[in-house]
Amino acid sequence: NAGVTQTPKFQVLKTGQSMTLQCAQDMNHNSMYWYRQDPGMGLRLIYYSASEGTTDKGEVPNGYNVSRLNKREFSLRLESAAPSQTSVYFCASSDPRGGGGSDTQYFGPGTRLTVL
Amino acid sequence: AQSVTQPDIHITVSEGASLELRCNYSYGATPYLFWYVQSPGQGLQLLLKYFSGDTLVQGIKGFEAEFKRSQSSFNLRKPSVHWSDAAEYFCAVGRMDSSYKLIFGSGTRLLVRP
């Protein structure tokens, strides 16, 4: 049982390049999330998917797109990377049995992205 | 709007000493509250959570937290800190509306003196 996995672990891009961060979970969770972590700012929600086939914007969606490929996989795409997108990106999943915000989110190990 | 405040950016304690990390939240309804820990280079691991009932909740690794509605606080405590507790700690509040979201505080980095 791997939990939440993310690839790649590290990435360096040049301004304007594109890339896709991959996330997969094997816990049969309905909900998946993408966060970015910046020093002194905690984690901020980029996009989330409450269930397969749905996606919604979070707090900081500009410059990103997402795809919920199936129940297991949720990818994050940077179409034209900018230095402001240098960050650590975390994927998470949850199973909201209790509804609303009561569910526990399980996190992947993160992707460290640098945009030059 | 909902928010979470962790007023201490860094805290240093000696090994074996007690620890309290502060967390204050702003939320209109009864909150769902969480503490996560992040070891260097790792993802976040859930320490404990509060949904309802007993306001003192026990978590993993000997941590506990107390929900105080009157103070809008959910402080994390440990009676005796171990060197392996050095990490960053995040408090979060879960939204109970139509979306499944966590709002995180900015984190407190714990340093442990030998």
SSE topology:
The complex is a heterodimer of chains A (116) and B (114).
Chain A: E1 4-7, E2 10-13, E3 19-25, E4 31-37, E5 43-49, E6 56-57, E7 64-68, E8 74-78, E9 87-94, E10 105-107, E11 111-115
Parallel strand pairs in A: 2-11
Antiparallel strand pairs in A: 1-3, 3-8, 4-5, 4-9, 5-6, 7-8, 9-10, 9-11
Chain B: E1 3-5, E2 10-14, E3 19-21, E4 24-26, E5 32-38, E6 44-50, E7 56-58, E8 64-68, E9 73-78, E10 87-94, E11 102-104, E12 108-113
Parallel strand pairs in B: 2-12
Antiparallel strand pairs in B: 1-4, 3-9, 5-6, 5-10, 7-8, 8-9, 10-11, 10-12
Question: Can you put this structure into words, describing what you see?
Answer:
Chain A is mainly beta and 116 residues long. Chain A has strands at residues 4-7, 10-13, 19-25, 31-37, 43-49, 56-57, 64-68, 74-78, 87-94, 105-107, 111-115. The mean pLDDT of chain A is 91. Chain B is an all-beta fold. In chain B, 0% of the residues lie in helices and 52% in strands. In chain B, the strands form three sheets. In chain B, strands 2, 5, 6, 10, 11 and 12 form a six-stranded mixed beta sheet that branches. In chain B, β10 and β11 form a beta hairpin. The radius of gyration of chain B is 14 Å and the shape is globular. The mean pLDDT of chain B is 91. Classes of the chains: A mainly beta (116), B mainly beta (114). The A-B interface holds A 4, 31, 40-45, 48, 50, 56, 58, 90, 92, 94, 96, 98-110 and B 4, 9, 32, 34, 36, 42-46, 49, 51, 90, 93-102, 104-107.
